[in-house]
Design a protein that fits this description.
2 domains, 12 strands, 5-stranded mixed beta sheet, Nucleotidyltransferase, domain 5, 14 helices
């Protein structure tokens, strides 16, 4: 059985697509590619993710516009890798998060919203689409995140060592599997900002989408006084289960950091170095506060390419630091696997991680509109 997995994260760097195969009780990643969002669409998503600039008509429209961006990316993907869609059983998509409020912030119900209308994909490709993976966990009293720890467990729990899986996307998150862990032993939570603040600073200061390989950060000096102030962030000392996102680490938050650094007369490269160090040291601090013995840290996501972050982790953590194979495609691969669990009517949240009352089946199924007719 084959499936397409789709992930587009809070960093807004693009649409990740993978082709997954399940055969002989094994999951394999057969192909992966990433397709950048158009700049105009990124701006619309950012505007829709801010209370001050969003409106219901805009969000309604974006729900479809993002889906059509997925359609275009899938068409490029199947052409590049010569994928026969008639061999694909379903499409599993995370959707684009524009708001995530797991803690009744500002007196509102705990809730989450991922846009990207699944009916658009189901209609275009006449495929079953599995989407909206976070909502059932939240209905069961959970945070709706993180969900990938289930995948880490499925793929790695038979390795007899203590492993921390650190994803550095827009937000950083860790999954800790102690040696011979059961599903209930998993510790996982968002560690704080990932690439989101770094990318935002690069766009503001250098008009570039990101700091390639962390080269600009490596050329600057860390302002440790500002870094220490940032590390007093109340989120970092909050006990898990916990999750965060753009509702906290947004442009306004970044502007405050840049102002602090300007007050210290920091050069542009020093600002990037300090903001990048903030991501690295949030990871280090969270490990020291909440995790046990670590033999290996396996890093995934776009931040795995940032050499400045990786160097800081190697200098400050007493563990082997490894870059995950197929690192950029791991989350798309993960949601393809979660989709398979949905089809089997099997729970795939981890209550000890999300805080849900019980294990639940994740994902909403949108059926193909023309039944078993082949894709042409």
């Amino acid at each position: 059985m084959k499936a397409i997995g789709i992930m587009s994260g809070t960093s807004l760097d693009g649409i990740d697509l993978c082709l997954m195969e399940y055969q002989n009780d094994q999951y394999s990643l057969l192909a992966f590619n990433s397709y950048p969002y158009e700049i105009a669409l990124v701006k619309k998503i950012k505007d829709a993710s801010k209370i001050i600039s969003s409106n219901v008509q805009q969000i309604c429209s974006l729900n479809y516009e993002v889906a059509y961006a997925y359609v275009d990316a899938i068409k490029k993907f199947i052409k590049t890798y010569q994928i026969d869609l008639n061999e694909v059983t379903y499409i599993a998509m995370h959707g684009q998060t524009i708001w995530h409020n797991p803690n009744e912030m500002d007196g509102y119900y705990s809730s989450t919203l991922q846009i990207g209308e699944p009916a658009v994909l189901a209609y275009e490709f006449n495929k079953m689409v599995i989407s909206n993976f976070r909502t059932m966990d939240m209905a069961a009293g959970g945070l709706g995140a993180p969900l990938i720890p289930f995948i880490n467990y499925i793929l790695y729990h038979k390795q007899h060592k203590n492993i921390a899986f650190q994803n550095i996307g827009g937000i950083g998150n860790v999954c800790y599997l102690k040696q011979d862990a059961t599903l209930n032993d998993i510790i996982a939570f968002d560690t704080g900002p990932g690439n989101m603040l770094i990318d935002g600073a690069m766009q503001k200061l250098y008009q570039k989408p990101y700091d390639e390989n962390g080269q600009i950060a490596k050329s600057g000096k860390i302002d440790y006084e500002v870094l220490e102030l940032l590390l007093n962030d109340e989120y970092l000392t909050k006990p898990y289960p916990k999750a965060t996102g753009r509702e906290k680490y947004n442009d306004q938050y970044l502007d405050q950091i840049i102002k602090m650094l300007c007050d210290h007369h920091a050069q542009k490269e020093d600002m990037i170095a300090t903001i990048t160090a903030y991501t690295a040291y949030t990871i280090i601090k969270e490990y020291q506060m909440f995790l046990g013995k670590i033999d290996e840290v396996i890093v995934s996501g776009g931040g795995a390419h940032n050499e400045f972050i990786i160097d800081l982790l190697r200098k400050n953590l007493n563990a082997k630091i490894t870059i995950m194979e197929n690192t950029d495609g791991f989350e798309a691969f993960g949601f393809a696997i979660l989709g398979h669990m949905t089809l089997q009517n099997k729970p795939s949240n981890v209550p000890s991680v999300t805080g849900a009352k019980e294990p639940v089946i994740l994902g909403n199924i949108t059926n193909p509109p023309r039944g078993n007719k082949q894709y042409e």
